[in-house]
């Protein structure tokens, strides 16, 4: 019994030290009309689901586009990047002309975080963040932001070609 208490205390202390929020991701019941392996983003919930099949999915908290910046529809993961550099898209550059042309990967100023899954057909991605307080909010220009530890988890689970659907 004492070993369990010590282990639980150690686990709680480790979580507090690394700043990983409790239940940032979890396996949940999920019935979907999509194939297992599909990523479903529900912007109204600010949640991303990786459909596992058998009525289950992994649910992650995310930040989504501001109401005037959201997009909806189907895409596929067309690239996977570790510590991606970031070049502000034109829509961001119009609002923030002072931004540099490129922010290198690994920079604390880089809004892409530690991993990125780029999506076909636009300038959008599912990526980590340097602004973890934005998770759970309508915060981006259309990209889907995740806690860095969650994008690492998702990155390891999905290949290029993974279908992605974004719904309200």
The figure for the number of domains is 1
Gap between N and C termini? 47 Å
Count of alpha/pi helices: 3
> SS-based structural class?
alpha+beta
Can you list the strand order of the major beta sheet? 2-3-4-9-7-6-5-10
Estimated radius of gyration: 17 Å
Work out the strand percent.
25-35%
| Name of the level-1 CATH class | Mainly Beta
Tell me what the structure shows.
The chain has 168 residues and is an alpha+beta fold. It has one domain (23-167): L,D-transpeptidase catalytic domain-like. The chain has helices at 2-18, 90-95, 148-157; strands spanning 25-29, 39-42, 47-53, 56-65, 73-82, 115-119, 125-127, 138-140, 144-146, 163-167. A hairpin with a 5-residue loop joins strand 6 and strand 7 (125-127). The chain is globular. The model is unreliable at 1-22 (pLDDT under 50).
């Amino acid at each position: 019994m004492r070993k369990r208490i010590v282990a639980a205390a150690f686990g709680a202390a480790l979580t507090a030290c690394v700043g990983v929020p409790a239940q940032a991701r979890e396996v949940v019941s999920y019935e979907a009309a999509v194939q297992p392996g599909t990523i479903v983003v529900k912007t109204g919930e600010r949640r991303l689901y990786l459909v596992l099949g058998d009525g289950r999915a992994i649910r992650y908290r995310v930040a989504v586009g501001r109401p005037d910046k959201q997009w909806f529809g189907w895409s596929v993961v067309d690239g996977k990047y570790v510590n991606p550099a970031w070049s502000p898209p034109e829509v961001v550059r119009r609002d923030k002309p002072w931004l540099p042309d490129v922010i290198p990967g690994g920079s604390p100023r880089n809004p892409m975080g530690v991993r990125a899954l780029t999506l076909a057909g636009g300038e959008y991605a599912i990526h980590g963040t340097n602004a973890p307080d934005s998770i759970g909010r309508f915060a981006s220009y259309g990209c889907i932001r995740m806690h860095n530890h969650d994008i690492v988890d998702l990155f390891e689970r999905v290949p290029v070609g993974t279908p992605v659907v974004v719904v309200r």
